[in-house]
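Holo prediction — FE2/S2 (inorganic) cluster.
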Amino acid sequence: MNIEMIDSKIPEGPLKDKWTSHKSKINLVNPANKRLIDVIMVGTGLAGSSAAASLAEMGYNVKAFCFQDSPRRAHSIAAQGGINAAKNYQNDGDSVYRLFYDTIKGGDYRSREANVHRLAEVSTSIIDQCVAQGVPFAREYGGLLDNRSFGGVQVSRTFYAKGQTGQQLLLGAYSALSRQISKGKVEMCTRHEMMDVVMVDGKCRGIIARNLVTGELERHAAHAVVLASGGYGNVFFLSTNAMGSNVSASWKAHKKGAFMANPSFTQIHPTCIPVSGEHQSKLTLMSESLRNDGRIWVPAKKDDAEGIRNGSIKASEIAEDDRDYYLERRYPAFGNLVPRDVASRAAKERCDAGFGVNETGEAVFLDYASAFERYGKTEASIRGLKSPSAAEIIVLGKQVVKAKYGNLFDMYKQIAADDPYETPMKIYPAVHYTMGGLWVDYNLMTSVPGLYATGEANFSDHGANRLGASALMQGLADGYFVLPYTIGDYLSNDIRTGEISPDSPEFELAEKEVKERIDALMNNNGTRTVDDFHRRLGRIMWNKCGMSRNAEDLKSAIEEIRVLRQEFWADVRVPGAIDEFNPELDKAMRVSDFLELGELMCIDALDREESCGGHFREEHQTPEGEALRHDEEFAFVSAWEFTGDPKESRLHREDLAFENIEVKQRSYK
Amino acid sequence: MDLTLNIWRQKGPDDKGHIEKYPVSGVSPDMSFLEMMDMLNDRIIREGGDPVAFDHDCREGICGMCSMFINGQAHGPNRGVTTCQLHMRSFKDGDDITIEPWRAAAFPVVKDLTVNRSAFDRIIQSGGYVSVNTSGETLDANAIPVPKPQADEAFSAATCIGCGACVASCKNASAMLFVSAKVSQFALLPQGQPERALRVKRMVEQMDEEGFGNCTNTGACSVECPKGIDLTNIARMNRDFLKSSVDS
Ligand code: SF4
Ligand code: FES
């Protein structure tokens, strides 16, 4: 195969100076000229709201789009655990370099050094900014900010707001956005979905959007378009993503020339509430912060596991010696705090071996008993209680845990109908995040001039596995502190362009193509619902391109997806009309794109003959069953170009150079 | 379980709307309420009908998008949960369940159970923020300590998800609980002080302009609020509003 190399435009100079010197050399647009420039923002989660607000403050005219009824509802809102920043407030030896190092290592050496270092550098400003906006982070009694630790690291650098950190950060960005809307600097289009990007003379100059209330197609022109449209975990049907989360904006961009990078890199989060039945529409995450204090185990004896499954024995009846705390056993150094990919695979390994603890055999215990005791003792001594009884200690401990994780425990109880204060929770891995996404250069521009991607929609910072509490960090870093500067480099060439007209033949053609696609779906009059196809696609993806993958399965998955896609276009039934509020039509459009993306994900997973992070190829593992990378052959980013059919996608590669970090086989033992 | 659903159907804002009866069977107690609705819609689509439109997204009680008025209660019979967190085990075999949209002049129906809550966005735009640019060149985050009790109270107010259940539950369709939650979050933090008076004034004015009703202290809003936003927030807002009117 003839593989073309791509240039990521990483600035020259030592790693730690790259960002600062790049910022000082970058072309700027002066304030008067910014008024002449329009930018479109697709998506209003952390990355989108923050960037829209920042660009508007700088003086650009911004138009922002979201499919929800308000920008405040984007799925960033559901992030629970926290946001990382190298503040070193806890004085435990944290630094920008350590955050950089942890992120590269956590990503299993498949991310770009320069981007990750920049992320670590700006992380501290995020916290300052959010506090200034009135984000109510958790505080200690002294009034200063509190921190907790997260998987894959040995310092305490995660800032949080109970289990609702994403909500509070998003509401912060939403308030900054609202301020700009009130000033007339951002025009907000809610209940709108991007249908396509429009290219004029080789540059991205706007989008076709659909008003989801009236069904009307609209043309919106701009000098640049930013996609902050999130990840594509919903290709698996069941995931922790919101129901509306989709790949369509990214996929449409891909089909117009933007490369998709490492599409198979999916994060399967270890602590989710297990599937309860066929009716299941989505999965719910239990914050990783719970692994801080909870211990994960399964019965050591098969008989006990069997007994738990059929209800003849209870977890509490299993003696300490008959429990297998498998993470602590396999990874003594990190224990329950190993990175997500490692924890997920270990759970699957135990369940596949027959030690699972719910009816389907696909669940492990997350147990708080020892945390109740530990916190209870500390609390008793803080309160000066002399020789408290064991029961008193547990009561005190539960109070402490309630203060820290109360909302998560409540959520569990609500869904699982089981009280986690009394019996250990049952958890199982679920699709949560996609590290892959649109390929972007150092300036966050895709391979299409004038088209940018930020936040989860791009691929750049997390390599093959994202560390906990880093998604919020990246979304806000891109939105507040990176894109608003780097986009100027491109836009500085556009100050004399004048307004872009939405009446050009290019817009007309793009709109026509969208209309034809919608008509085809509506007039199909098939027999099966959109969900039916989506569920079947999800099953293929989960079984064959999920936590562990092999060549044979991936090859058959590709064929199955192609057949399913044909069937979809022949037999899907979309009710209602085009010119009305029609959520089924919205869904059908999204699923039609997932049906193409799924194939590319399998192609990418098949091509990468190694295991790294969340991408585990059964053919490539160490004797202990750990992921085995092949650095000589695969230390690169796979960037796929669309050429008309996912099967014919052309591979480009960006070689990853590690100059500031020693590349090692990852070990958390 | 077998159930009878009485669902509000309304084609659009100008349609009068009516209740339609749908028997459903084979509902599992482990299903969420919205999964039960999915099941119904699946059947309606297969039968060639028009599925029931309803808002939802996160399905984990945080985005604030779901909004059903179930048997006369916003988000249904349970306390402290949203519609998406309600499970069918809260109902009995043979139950009759009536499902309606939020009803308020300021929340016009889009279709069926979907309403337009953009009035809430406009209230936030009128002043629900701290005016600070996003340059990152602010004070160090630890430069201003905030006593923990105060920070915790601000956090509690900030957990409002903007769902509108408070409005739907109020016989006057008042938005006081929602507005006071945002006002309180900032009133409790040092960062919110400089604009405190102006903020409350503007937000209350916008609230009135949107056509929300007056507060007559029935407290229904707080009872039905899935996040348990406290009535003390309304009292705080009233004090601040009074003060801002006296001062200006
Ligand atoms: S105050 Fe409560 S009921 Fe009202 S919008 Fe906020 S969360 Fe919903
Ligand atoms: S769907 Fe998000 S709160 Fe119910």
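READOUT: Residues 390-416 of chain A form the longest helix (27 residues).
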